[in-house]
Amino acid sequence: MYRIGQGFDVHRLAEGRKLIVGGVTIPHSHGLLGHSDADVLLHAIADAVLGAIGRGDIGIHFPDNDPKWKDADSSRLLGQVWEMAKQEGYRLVNCDCTVIAQQPKLAPYIPEMKERIAKLLEAEPDRVNVKATTTERLGFPGREEGIAALAAVLLENGGGSP
């Protein structure tokens, strides 16, 4: 049995925060603002996995009004989501993601992001694809106000409850 999920997330850029995308810290003058570390890419992937297994979204599992998740490492959040999927017998077929940001340029960090995501999803790196694009200076990403991410996952159930 195959299940598809899609996820989307966006966070505002703010001074005084680290920029973490795809589990990788990227040198930049601004970071993403959020209750957790605001890793927009890992949040989109977590939502995609939760969608594929029919378990809502990360806001349900990690609410932003719960102090337990304040400044949480999004790798930990995705790890917990992946445990839910594994408990139901799922494995990753593939994950395809797009990060939308005018700045900074993300291409040099994509190989490390792919490795990190693959490790979190217990898959080979060739099952994970990460792309980055700009909006040609249009909209909030183009004005460098924030960063958005889209993710799609295909999961296969290998024997747990569907």
UniProtKB/TrEMBL annotation:
Q: Which domain of life is it from?
A: Bacteria
Cofactor info, note text: Binds 1 divalent metal cation per subunit.
Molecular function GO terms recorded? 2-C-methyl-D-erythritol 2,4-cyclodiphosphate synthase activity; metal ion binding
Where does this protein act, in terms of pathway? Answer: Isoprenoid biosynthesis; isopentenyl diphosphate biosynthesis via DXP pathway; isopentenyl diphosphate from 1-deoxy-D-xylulose 5-phosphate: step 4/6
Biological processes per GO annotation: isopentenyl diphosphate biosynthetic process, methylerythritol 4-phosphate pathway; terpenoid biosynthetic process
| PANTHER family assigned | 2-C-METHYL-D-ERYTHRITOL 2,4-CYCLODIPHOSPHATE SYNTHASE, CHLOROPLASTIC (PTHR43181)
Name listed for the protein in its UniProt record: 2-C-methyl-D-erythritol 2,4-cyclodiphosphate synthase
**What lineage is on file?**
Bacteria, Bacillati, Bacillota, Bacilli, Bacillales
